[in-house]
Amino acid sequence: MKKEHYDILIIGSGISSSFFLTRILQKKEIIGKKILVLEKGYEESHSERKARRFRKHNGVVATKLDPSKTFLQTDDTNKKWTYSPSFGGSSNCWYGNTLRFLPNDFRTKSIYGYGIDWPLTYEELENYYSIAENIFQVSGPSKTPFPKTSSYPLPPHKLSGFDKLLQKKFGSLYIATPCARPSISIEQRPKCCNSGVCHVCPIDSKFTVTNSLSGAYEDPRVILKTEAKAEYLRIENGIAKSVLITYQEKEYEISADLFVLGANAIFNPFLLIRSGDNSPELGKGINEQVSINCSMELDQITGFDGSTVISGLGYMFYDTPERKKTSACLVENHTAPILGGNRWKNGFNRANVKFIFEDLRQSQNRIELDSNGKLPIVVYKGHHPRTQAALKNTEKYASEIAKAVSASSFTLAESINSTESHIQGTVPMGNSTGNSVVDRDLVHHKIRNLCVLGSSSFPTSPPANPSLTIAALSLRTADRLFDSGSRS
Questions:
Q1: In what order do the strands lie in the sheet with 376-380?
Q2: How far is Cα 317 from Cα 127, in angstroms, rounded to an integer?
């Protein structure tokens, strides 16, 4: 078995890993260091992904490495778990929504009596939100439901007629969607074309690691190995010593001083479980937001004249006093029309709305090993009872929106959506080993030269999209590890 050594070893090349890598390369402590990044998927060009755009897995454009072959699923098989195993990770298939969490999302236990408080606050993350927004080149409004100390780098997208009526009704609780789909052309990327097929943007407008952060992987200190599968970590006396990998049909043992897991919330815990980590909360709590669609028939106005696929966001049912009794709900307006059936009977005088509810970690929903220990099994028993009860509010919320826009009627989908494509919660952060696996800096409680990035560390699951928070946390972890005196 061939052996190699690097100063830093990063597993995964998606948003969490790439933001971390970009940040540490700016540090004087990294001068002269050797960094290895392992990606189990292939490196695919934009043209390759575009050529494959009609091949789908769980609604997402298929990658060369079929994600359905990488994990197993039991129980609720109608529940889908979506990710993109390729260089750049899910930046290749995301829609580019870059929402901040609200301050109260970090303290639901102390404010509303449910969930668990995060071990850090909005205020501690706020500066990193701003840095991440500049890297993403976010288009966004001047007024938001969350506090900001900086302006978005790009102007907001145009609201639709439907959006404008809701903004008139709900004020600053209804905004143009902050997103990494440019509202104007920028150096690396053209203006969003609003074609609504964002899983693979036809003009490469939305942010991806490939079109915006590939320079980090061209740094001479960095070696990227794609089609490289991490098998397990060798851990001795609370220290990660090496990782065993399969690369080009050969086995390697790679040692490092610092290990960084930047896979998703299925594979981060899977790798740790295979490595003998017995942290009580490890692998438990897999979850994501729960959503349901609604179509509205409009009079006089159009729902499709916004300038990007999701043009408006509603926070009017999100952080209200009702949150003590029910789950927070975010409203999305989808500007792209849905084709097929009789959906065109009212022309463009329609709106397609999605209601997105927060969910909570439950130990019954978890990651296990298959009988051979080769693949992760997603065991999913169902959404949290609090979330299931909150879904009953959807008709009331839809009625309030319909009244605000004078809709002639609305129709709720018969069932909830199978996925929100945000896998979370299986390596939660916290202040003790009793309720978490990593600390507030995303460093493993027991294995102090190991970090776990990404939404697997989220102890709760707010309705807002997680990508911006993932990026901000990665930037913060980079600073905490490599800025002298920043870690207590």
A1: 72-75, 376-380, 366-369
A2: 27
Using CA atoms, how far residue 259 sits from 239, 246, 255, 353, in Å, is 10, 17, 9, 42
* CA gap 4, 31 in Å, rounded: 20
Q: Which tokens sit at 142?
A: 């001047």
**Checking phi first, is residue 65 left (phi over 0); if not, alpha (psi -120 to 50) or beta?**
beta
pLDDT tens, 257-296?
Answer: 999 999 999 999 999 999 999 999 999 999 999 999 999 9
Residue 398 CB neighbours (<10 A) = 21
User: What is the value of pTM for the model shown?
Assistant: 0.96
Q: Which amino acid is at 324?
A: K
Q: What is the DSSP string of 244-263?
A: EEEETTEEEEEEEEEEEE-S
Beta strands in 102-188 (DSSP E): 174-176
**What's the DSSP call for residue 271?**
H
Sign of the Cα pseudo-torsion (56, 61, 65, 71, in order): negative
Q: What are 203's two structure tokens?
A: 């003009």
Beta bridge partners of 355: 292, 331
pLDDT digits 0-9 by tens, 212-237: 999 999 999 999 999 999 999 999 99
What would the DSSP string read from start to end of 422-455? --B-SS-B-SSTTT-SB-TTSBBSS-TTEEE-SG
**Contact indicator for 470, 209 with CB cutoff of 8 Å:** no
- In the chain, what are the domains? 2-482 (3.50.50.60)
Q: Which amino acid is at 180?
A: A
The one-character DSSP state at 23 is H
Q: Are 330 and 319 in contact (CB under 8 A)?
A: no
Alpha carbon distance 442, 191 (integer Å): 35
Nearest to 366 by CA among 244, 272, 468, 261: 272
**Residue the block writes with tokens 């990488």:** 70
Q: How far apart are CA 94 and CA 444, in angstroms?
A: 28
CA 422 to mean position of chain CA atoms: 5
Give the whole-angstrom CA distance, residue 43 versus residue 86.
6
